[in-house]
Specification:
single chain, 527 residues, alpha/beta, Aldehyde Dehydrogenase, Chain A, domain 1, Aldehyde Dehydrogenase, Chain A, domain 2, seven-stranded mixed beta sheet, 15 helices, 20% strand
Length: 527
């Protein structure tokens, strides 16, 4: 059992200098939980950032193999957190036990996956162009490139994934794998959970001999601005609202030294229903899609918030079946009162918006969110209506019926950037639709065929990102091993003697990693 103090984590120790107290609450009842948390002062935010900065040159020199051992130690500590921990997370978030147990395994699993990446060594991106002293008219110098961690990273915890996208989640794991110390800003919705996990990270750091400032955690509202503007911080990872993510991007860009913000922010994850699929299995699609909309009370960043189809008898039947399925879905408890309030505001916007009608749904009560299905006139989407493009975070979706394939392509072209776009189709639907698929590729980071977007595999090939406003930088991903790229930068050595080069670039290739040597991939030593 962890001894909870509610204090901030700075350089491996605890700190509680402030006099502003924060309260964690039971997500189902709204009642205060026993521990109060101490909001970080500006001095403590500075101390956390400075601790990370002091740890950076030490941690950067830790070998990739030892960093992997550190990540595996964190995973072991997380796996060892037992029933009391699971009960705490469930109490703070109203998420069911099985969901949290699965998320615990996912969180430790992605840490171990990054450890494999570190042992493999391809994250270095090693490239070698050997000297060509006889080249005319000018000789070529010996040039060798690899990648290093950018420096201390600020990570903001997500509300909807208290483990996998929070304290030891994907952003933290990727930053630590890259050789970057972390200052983590705990989410106000699950501060007790964050303390449990932060304690596990600190224990793992101590066990593996990592520098004290490799991981730090602060509590509080408003402290994020101090953190992002701190000169020691070199990058930011964020999962949350478009408003919050955009504010962080603007702060980071306005610094004397601008830094990148990798923010996952807003996506309505359109689902395109093609005619033959609806004709052959419309009833099954109506049931499956309703289940995807309401899973986890709709509190997934990949929740399908817009459903597009072409007018036909099959689409009309689907609409009736889908509305009936949505009407049968029970109310669920949301993560916290703030999330429910935002959901209620989003529903109210859609209800009041000209050109939309409610097909299924009732008003919320207490902490329960009622599923909602709206239908919007096609002209709204075709004319670029912004309300239909706004994410409603919760178990709600909007149905749009298009006149023909031309309108379907026009509707897709009008969409903002997305995390996912889904096609529900039969083979006959896909014939002569290469143009549509090429258009979808421009709109999202992940294109699904005959699946549903609520579920993100942690693996090498996954992309959990997309064009703005889905993310602030479409070149990265916050899930999967490619996530490490966000916190690395290239360094080139010119004419350095072998003994002074990083091991990844030496002629002998002591790490045995794959490298690009004079344009050819190789794992052999230079001869």
């Amino acid at each position: 059992m962890v001894t909870l103090t509610g204090q901030n984590f700075i350089a491996g120790a605890r700190s509680g200098q402030g006099d502003v107290l924060l309260q964690s609450r039971d997500a189902t009842t709204g009642k205060a939980l026993p521990v109060q948390f101490i909001q970080a002062t500006r001095e403590e935010v500075d101390a956390a950032a400075q601790a990370a900065a002091q740890a950076y040159p030490l941690y950067r020199q830790v070998t990739a193999v030892r960093r992997g051992e550190f990540l595996e130690a964190i995973a072991d500590e997380l796996d060892a957190l037992g029933d009391d921990f699971i009960a705490t997370v469930c109490q703070e978030t109203a998420l069911p036990t099985a969901r949290i147990q699965g998320e615990q395994a996912r969180t430790s699993g992605q840490l171990r996956l990054f450890a494999q990446v570190l042992r493999r060594g391809d994250f270095y991106g090693a490239r070698i162009d050997t000297a060509m002293p006889e080249r005319k008219p000018l000789p070529r110098a010996d040039l060798r490139q690899y990648r290093i961690g950018v420096g201390p990273v600020a990570v903001f915890g997500a509300s909807n994934f208290p483990l996998a996208f929070s304290t030891a989640g994907g952003d933290t794991a990727a930053a630590l794998a890259a050789g970057c110390p972390v200052v983590f800003k705990a989410h106000s919705g699950h501060m007790t959970t964050s303390e449990w996990v932060a304690s596990a990270i600190v224990r793992a750091a101590e066990r593996t001999g990592m520098p004290g400032g490799v991981f730090n955690m602060i509590y509080g509202g408003g402290v994020g601005e101090w953190l992002v503007k701190h000169p020691a911080i070199q990058a930011v990872g964020f999962t949350g609202s478009l408003k919050g993510g955009r504010a962080l991007c603007d702060m980071a860009a306005a610094r004397p030294q601008p830094i990148p913000v990798f923010a996952e922010m807003s996506s309505i994850n359109p689902v395109l229903l093609l005619p033959q699929a609806l004709e052959q299995r419309g009833e099954a699609i109506a049931a499956e899609l309703a289940a995807s909309v309401v899973i986890g009370c709709g509190q997934f960043c990949t929740n399908p918030g817009l459903i597009l189809g072409v007018r036909s008898p099959a689409f009309s039947r689907f609409q009736q079946q889908f509305a009936a399925n949505m009407a049968d879905q029970p109310a669920q408890t949301m993560l916290n009162a703030g999330t429910l309030g935002s959901y209620a505001q989003g529903i109210a916007r859609l209800q009041a918006h000209p050109g939309t009608e409610l097909l299924a749904g009732q008003w919320q009560s207490d902490y329960q969110a009622q599923p909602h299905l709206f239908k919007a006139q096609a002209s709204l989407l075709l004319e670029g209506d912004e309300v239909l493009q706004e994410e409603v975070f919760g178990p709600a979706t909007v149905l749009v019926e298009l006149a023909d394939d031309a309108q379907l392509e026009q509707a897709v072209a009008s969409l903002h950037g997305q995390l996912t776009v889904t096609l529900i189709a039969e083979a006959a639907d896909l014939q002569d639709r290469a143009g549509l698929i090429a258009l979808l590729e421009q709109k999202a980071g992940r294109l699904l065929l005959n699946g549903y977007p609520t579920g993100v595999e942690v693996c090498e090939a996954m992309v959990h990102g997309g064009p703005y406003p889905a993310t602030s930088d479409a070149r990265g991903t916050s899930v999967g091993t490619l996530a490490i790229d966000r916190f690395l930068r290239p360094v080139c050595f010119q004419n350095y003697p072998d003994a002074l080069l990083p091991e990844a670039l030496r002629d002998s290739n002591p790490l045995g990693i794959q490298r690009l040597v004079n344009g050819k991939a190789t794992v052999a030593a230079l001869t």
